[in-house]
Amino acid sequence: MTQRAARIAPSILSADFTRLGEELDSIAGADYVHYDVMDGHFVPNLSFGPGILRQVKCHTQMPVDVHLMVEDPEQSVGWYLEAGADIVTFHYEAQRHAHRLATLIREHGALASVAINPGTPVAALSSILPYVDMVLVMTVDPGYGGQSFIEGSCEKLGELRSLCSSLGVSPLVEVDGGIGVANAERVCAAGADVLVAGSAVFGAPDRGVAIETIREAGTRGIAGRA
Ligand SMILES: O=C(CO)[C@H](O)[C@H](O)COP(=O)(O)O
Ligand SMILES: [Fe+2]
């Protein structure tokens, strides 16, 4: 059997925005660019919008994973689809019509993904799971880069795996927040396939080495899954 490798999505929230092109070049060995959109309402912070996404898409061939931390994502999702988002993640806690939103994202040719905050139980996802390509399990409360991984997240990943198998679905599972080489192996052993890493990649002296080291640890975790 071919060994599945963990996929790495550096969050450019931790990049130097004054040199964004060079920062994107420095993560060329990754699988996705993780693009955090914050509206100052759903989360207490502001980041970037569709204009910068358009520029990122012009600069890189890497698929862009757009994480919408915004209230009422149905109102703004079209901007990000038009700007070329490859994956769009909306928060379960922020939307009203999850099925309609996931369907709209897929109709635009992007992958649909739903995120849950640390305080939201996995069971909340049962009705939307058949309609999404990925689930993002937040491993910090969203809003800032550089926070510490919340212990207990691995248990939640196990619950998600059980729920998916009881429903007969197999979305990709992404984790976001406080991920690095110290926990990549255990989150992947617990069910994660895609690792978002902001400070662990952009804060490293050599981003290429950091990406490879986190990927190797995650891939060991996938190989060791029960
Ligand atoms: O969604 C996010 C924050 O809400 C970011 O993607 C996340 O925090 C990544 O940063 P780090 O790896 O430094 O925790
Ligand atoms: Fe994120």
UniProtKB/TrEMBL annotation:
Species: Olsenella porci
Active site: residue positions: D36 (proton acceptor), D176 (proton donor)
Protein name as annotated: Ribulose-phosphate 3-epimerase
Gene that this polypeptide is encoded by: rpe
Entry's Gene Ontology molecular function annotations: D-ribulose-phosphate 3-epimerase activity; metal ion binding
Reported function: Catalyzes the reversible epimerization of D-ribulose 5-phosphate to D-xylulose 5-phosphate.
Residues where substrate binds: S11, H67, G143, Y144, G145, G146, D176, G177, G178, G198, S199
Record family assignment: Belongs to the ribulose-phosphate 3-epimerase family.
Record-listed E.C. numbers: 5.1.3.1
Needed cofactors: Fe(2+); Mn(2+); a divalent metal cation; Co(2+)
Hydrolase found in the keyword field: no
PANTHER family per the UniProt record, alphabetical: RIBULOSE-5-PHOSPHATE-3-EPIMERASE
Catalytic reactions of this protein: D-ribulose 5-phosphate = D-xylulose 5-phosphate
A UniProt-annotated Pfam family: Ribul_P_3_epim
One of the record's GO cellular component terms: cytoplasm
Pathway membership: Carbohydrate degradation
Cofactor note: Binds 1 divalent metal cation per subunit.
Keywords, alphabetical: Carbohydrate metabolism, Cobalt, Isomerase, Manganese, Metal-binding, Zinc
UniProt-annotated binding residues for a divalent metal cation: H34, D36, H67, D176
GO biological process: pentose catabolic process; pentose-phosphate shunt
